[in-house]
Amino acid sequence: MSQNLTIIEHPLVQHKLTLMRREETPASSFRQLLWEISMLMTYEITRDLPLQEVTVNTPVCQTKAPLLTGKKLALVSIMRAGNGLLDGILELIPAARVGFVGLYRDEETLEPVEYYCKVPDQLEDRLVIAVDPMLATGNSSVAAISRLKKEGAKEIRLLSLVAAPEGVTCVQKVHPDIRIYTASLDERLNENGYIVPGLGDAGDRMFGTG
Ligand code: URA
């Protein structure tokens, strides 16, 4: 389970997640917290990005200082709830390209069915961060990651606010190369596929639907 799984235990992340879990938190606060927490999680998911020394002239002297180098980034939202994580990440990485994979669950087969896919070009040369706030069964994340690999992605990280052990196991089984980042590994899934204790339906919480 711990293989390729990072739980972001920073106190600010944990505090904000607790506020988001509360059922009385209104959609406006939920969105604000999601924006804040996605910035904090971005800090962690990008912790190992490579740097190169460049020469800069400060007003005082010339010096060498680090700048980001290496692969360009692509963010991919697994819709619809993934969209709620995009703004916070883009706040810190404004040059990132953004893609979308839309999936719904076929009520008969219970399998994810793709209804939309638009991703940045040259995915093979980018570090791809796929975002979905809730890693529940893992089926939609697995399908989205498979699609991104088909589009050429070679290095993918998955950012989920809350994960269920079932979802982590599912992703790790099919895509053992993927690094998963989450703020919480919750207890389990319930019979309706909701994460327990979770925070309910993330899309409904952020958009005030449901
Ligand atoms: N999707 C959600 O939004 N919440 C869950 O608990 C599970 C899946």
Describe the structure.
This protein is α/β, with parallel strands linked by helices and 210 residues long. It has one domain: Rossmann fold (3-Layer(aba) Sandwich). Helices cover 32% and strands 33% of the residues. The chain has helices at residues 11-21, 27-45, 83-92, 139-150, 165-174, 202-207, and strands spanning 5-7, 51-57, 62-68, 72-79, 97-105, 112-118, 126-131, 134-135, 155-163, 179-185, 188-189, 195-196. Strands 1, 4, 5, 6, 7, 8, 9 and 10 form an eight-stranded mixed β-sheet that branches. Strands 2-3 form a two-stranded antiparallel ribbon. Strand 9 (155-163), helix 5 and strand 10 form a beta-alpha-beta unit. Helix 1 (11-21) runs antiparallel to helix 2 (27-45) and helix 2 (27-45) crosses helix 3. The model has no long low-confidence stretch (mean pLDDT 95).
